[in-house]
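Show me any protein, fold above all:
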Amino acid sequence: MNTIGNKFRVSIFGESHGPVIGVTVDGVLPGIPLSVEDFTQDLSRRKAGALGTTPRIEADAPEILSGVYEGHTTGAPLTVIFRNENTRSEDYEAFRKNPRPGHADFTANLKYGGYNDPRGGGQFSGRLTLGIVAAGVIAKKMMYFAKFNAVLKEVGGLTDAEKWPEALKAAAADGDSLGGVVECVVEGLPIGLGEPFWDSVEGVLSHAVFAIPGVRGIEFGDGFEAARMRGSEHIDLFPEHKCCHGEHEEGHHCHHDDPDHECCHG
């Protein structure tokens, strides 16, 4: 299925060389200001053309088909599409008989009995992440109280950003490519977010992140390094002030006299 989520449900659709690709988001709160310009910044971060990215250049111009009226979300399912214009489908004809290693060509052909669209990877193409980015823009508007920051931390095993261009050029000259590591930090989330076991924050995020083609691992906090640490080292300490001293008033309202005190209950 191409749908994920319950209260905020995201469905991506389309194929790499079809007329359009897009996303439908259900569960969007009404009254949120939203225009096509709101997508520009995040779509630009994803846009191809930079060193080490796909050479396929598209306009990636979002078109809002539903869920927005007079500049505000309506609460109805919100659909955004992107038109595919720069396609070279003939480049993919040979992959039916000679599938690419590390791609979905072989598996998709068997799974769908040869009826799948092989052009550009079809529905398995990284191009469909456009819809995921668009859904993220909407989600961040709903989560106005939180701050999101994602940065590229490593390329080809190198952490020095000044060495990345040369490494990428060298790999490209060899007809090869490099992987990387992205670090994402979210601040301002409420305490107790998520549910036990299946719907923990880490579990739900991992489910979503692994939908991105090429992702091979995800870590939270110390990640796999925690397996090499003692329990006394791998621990999240509470702030020294020990907010509320373990005493909670009815309704979880802060009962500190200091107006500048930051209470754990908000």
Observations:
- Strands lie at 3-4, 9-14, 20-26, 63-66, 68-69, 72-73, 78-83, 147-155, 180-187.
- Confidence is low (pLDDT under 50) at residues 248-252.
- The first strand starts at residue 3 and ends at 4.
- Helices lie at 40-46, 105-111, 129-142, 164-173, 201-209.
